[in-house]
């Protein structure tokens, strides 16, 4: 990286937040492309139908806590092409399915052929009661990046469209306050941080759209005690990790400071613990089943393999679930047996 803001070349340098906003959501942005996120990476939603089934069970628990209202909302925040919403609708028991109102909230256009029961919106519906679920949404809310310069000061990192960077002005105001509170930057030159303030605000706005119920954000995350010293900003293209270049050709993502997003009464769990509490475990079926009912054994083995992927240490199992209750008892009530599954 150079230290001077030399103009010219492939686009003038600008903050990572602005550059990412254009690269992901501009007219030719990465998330506008027809193949959608699933064309470039696998989330838990694509890994197995067990995931949507677990989310459907969580919706049923929320429904119970809310006293089975006449209408219960399922809001899929950052819905991709509506895959989770569609699968949750299919997995719900009849009595809940008859009362559910499904919303997919997305910046991309509604995909052709989507279940007509799904309402497609650019922002969450206001004042609904139910479950808002955001799987791998917050990591795609663009953020600015700070880097410590040779004199030990935190400066904004600016980026050109080809991915080359220069240092900009010092980090000040609310961004500096956010870093001081949530991500204290080592004075070592070159140390970097992603400034999570826009994500805190985006999450607070999504939570505020609920009248009553539970909001859940699931993402790869880090805690204040162990932030990555050089940040986690990276790119993904066609299933592979790549350099983050803000030209619309790749996803640009960074792990989420979910602890900074958490509001009063929130709980933070690993995906392994949350899915365990919702009945997804990776145990193999008994061998005796293989002789009694070979087809059932093969199905159970497939399920066990998928559950293992969703809960794998070092993989999807390490994702974090942020559970934020709104006007209902603390989230522990919804995942009653979670303590039995928490291994940390
Ligand atoms: C990584 S994808 C996840 C898709 C899906 N939830 C899944 O888990 O497969 C993130 C999605 O969030 C959408 N997104 C980002 N910011 C958004 C916003 N402010 N409102 C609605 N959707 C948004 C993107 O367009 C993208 O489709």
Question: Can you walk me through this structure?
Answer:
The chain has 344 residues and is of the alpha/beta class. It has a domain at 30-141 and 197-281 and 318-337: Rossmann fold. It has 12 helices and 15 strands. The chain has helices at 16-25, 44-47, 49-65, 83-91, 94-97, 173-182, 197-208, 258-261, 271-277, 288-292, 294-310, 338-341; strands at 14-15, 72-77, 100-105, 118-121, 128-135, 144-148, 154-159, 165-170, 192-195, 210-219, 234-237, 240-242, 251-253, 267-270, 320-326. It has a 7-stranded mixed beta sheet with strand order 4-3-2-5-10-15-14. Strands 1, 6, 7, 8 and 9 form a 5-stranded antiparallel beta sheet that branches. It has a 3-stranded antiparallel beta sheet with strand order 12-11-13. The longest helix is centred in the first third of the chain and has 17 residues, at 49-65. It is globular, with a radius of gyration of 21 Å. It starts with 13 loop residues before the first strand and ends with a helix. Mean pLDDT is 91; it is low at 2-8. Bound molecules: S-adenosylmethionine (SAM). The site of S-adenosylmethionine (SAM) has 18 residues, from α4.
């Amino acid at each position: 990286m150079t230290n001077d803001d030399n103009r010219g070349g492939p686009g003038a340098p600008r903050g990572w937040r602005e550059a990412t906003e254009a690269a992901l959501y501009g007219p030719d942005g990465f998330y506008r492309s027809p193949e959608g996120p699933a064309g470039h990476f696998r989330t838990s939603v694509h890994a197995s139908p067990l995931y949507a089934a677990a989310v459907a069970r969580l919706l049923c628990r929320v429904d119970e806590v809310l006293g089975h209202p006449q209408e219960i909302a399922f809001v899929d925040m950052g819905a991709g092409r509506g895959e989770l919403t569609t699968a949750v609708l299919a997995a719900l028991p009849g009595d809940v399915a008859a009362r559910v109102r499904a919303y997919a909230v997305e910046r991309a256009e509604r995909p052709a052929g989507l279940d007509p029961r799904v309402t497609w919106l650019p922002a969450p519906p206001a004042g609904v009661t139910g479950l808002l679920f955001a799987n791998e949404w917050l990591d795609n809310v663009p953020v600015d990046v700070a880097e410590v310069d040779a004199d030990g000061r935190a400066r904004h990192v600016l980026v050109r469209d080809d991915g080359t960077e220069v240092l900009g002005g010092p980090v000040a105001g609310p961004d500096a306050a956010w870093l001081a509170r949530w991500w204290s930057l080592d004075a070592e030159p070159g140390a970097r941080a992603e400034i999570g303030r826009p994500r805190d605000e985006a999450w607070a706005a999504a939570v505020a759209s609920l009248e009553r119920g539970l909001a859940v954000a699931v993402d790869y995350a880090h805690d204040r005690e162990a932030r990555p010293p050089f940040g986690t900003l990276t790119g993904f293209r066609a299933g592979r990790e790549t350099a983050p270049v803000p030209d619309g050709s790749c996803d640009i993502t960074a792990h989420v400071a979910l602890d900074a997003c958490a509001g009063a009464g929130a709980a933070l769990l690993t995906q392994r613990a949350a899915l365990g509490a919702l009945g997804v475990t990776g145990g193999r079926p008994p061998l005796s089943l293989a002789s009694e009912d070979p087809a059932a054994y093969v199905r159970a083995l497939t399920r066990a393999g998928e559950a293992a992927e969703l809960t794998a240490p070092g993989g999807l199992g390490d994702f974090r679930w942020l559970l934020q209750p709104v006007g209902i008892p603390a989230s522990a009530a919804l995942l009653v047996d979670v303590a039995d599954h928490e291994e940390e």
